[in-house]
Amino acid sequence: MDKLLYGGHVDEFIKNKVYYKIFDGSFKQSSHIYSKKNKLGDSRVLESVENNRLTVVKYYDAENIVILQQVHGNEVIDADSDIETDPEADGAVTTKKNLVLTVQTADCVPILLSSEDAKVIGAAHCGWRGAKAGITNNLVKLMHEKGAKNIKAIICPSIQQYSYEVDQEFYDNFIKQRIENSKFFSSSLRTKHYMFDLPAYVELQLQEAGIKDITRMLEDTYTNPEKYPSYRRSCHTGELYNRTILSTIVIKG
C-alpha cells in the first residue's frame, strides 16, 4: 500500500545508505536559484547559483552534483558517464556514491527513486508534457538496465488537484491518449474547465512500471507560498518567479 505523508519527511531513503532532502523555502541557507539558464550576463546571480549548488553538496558531504537543464521532455541521462555541465534532460540515473541527483520544480512533480539494495538511484522532473511522453517509464527502464531491483519511489511536493485548473483542450488531449485518464480530472467551477491530478497521474505511471513501494507527499506548492515557489501562483498574483524547489537524492553508504 502506498504511504501518504503530509510533509514531515525524513532524510533517510534506504537505511544508512541512501538519503534525500527537499530544499524548500524552510531552508534558509539558499536563495533557491540553481539554474544558470538565461543568467550568463549577471555575475551576481551566477555567483549565487554556484553558492547554492555548493551548499547542497556540502549538506550531504558529497563530491558533486547533477543539475539538469530541464525542458519538459522525456530524456533521462546516465550520470555515471562523463556528462557536460547542466545537460539538457529531465531525468538522471547513477550508481555513483556521493553524486547528488537533483530535480528543480515550481509546481511540476519531482520523483526520487532508489533500488532496495541502494546501488542505483534516479530522479526526474515530471511536468504534464514529460509525464505524458513517458519520462517515468524511461527512468525506471534505465535503472533496470543498471541492475536496479525492487525500486522504491517518493513523489515529492507539487501542485495538487484542487489548485490545478485546466481547459477543455488540455482535457481532450489526455482523453485521446487513453480514455481511462478521465479519472484524473474532476469538474471545475468554470464551464469547460477541469481540475487535473498530475501527482496521481505520475503515480499510476510508476505503478505501471512495476513499482509497488510509493510514498506520495500531499503538500500543495500553489497554496504554500512561504515554503514553495509556484509558477502557476506567480501567473495569478504577479509575484516574482525565479526560485525552485530542489528535490535531491544521493548514495552514501
Describe this structure in words.
- The chain is an alpha/beta fold and 253 residues long.
- The protein has a single domain (3-160, 213-251), classed as CNF1/YfiH-like putative cysteine hydrolases.
- Helices cover 25% and strands 27% of the residues.
- The protein has helices at 43-60, 128-132, 135-145, 168-177, 198-208, 231-237; strands at 3-5, 12-14, 18-23, 64-66, 76-78, 91-94, 99-105, 109-115, 121-126, 151-155, 165-167, 185-187, 193-196, 213-217, 245-251.
- The protein has a 7-stranded mixed sheet. Strands 2-3-15-7-4 form a 5-stranded mixed sheet.
- The chain is globular, with a radius of gyration of 18 Å.
- Mean pLDDT is 93; it is low at 1-10.
- It holds the Pfam family Cu-oxidase_4.
> Per CATH, which architecture?
4-Layer Sandwich
Taking pLDDT < 50 over at least 5 consecutive residues as the criterion, the unreliable ranges are: 1-10
Tally of separate helices: 6
Distance between the termini: 27 Å
Strand tally is 15
CATH topology annotation: CNF1/YfiH-like putative cysteine hydrolases
Strand order of the largest sheet: 1-14-10-8-9-6-5
Number of domains: 1
Helix content: 10-25%
**CATH domain class:** Alpha Beta
Q: What is the CATH superfamily?
A: CNF1/YfiH-like putative cysteine hydrolases
Residue share in β-strands: 25-35%
How would you sum up the global shape?
A: globular
Taken in chain order, the helices and strands follow as EEEHEEEEEEHHEEHEEHEHE
**Class per helix and strand makeup:** alpha/beta
Please state the CA-atom Rg, rounded to the nearest Å: 18 Å
What does the largest sheet look like? 7 strands, mixed
- Determine the mean pLDDT: 93
GO molecular function: copper ion binding; hydrolase activity; S-methyl-5-thioadenosine phosphorylase activity
Pfam families: Cu-oxidase_4
Keywords: Hydrolase, Metal-binding, Transferase, Zinc
Protein name: Purine nucleoside phosphorylase
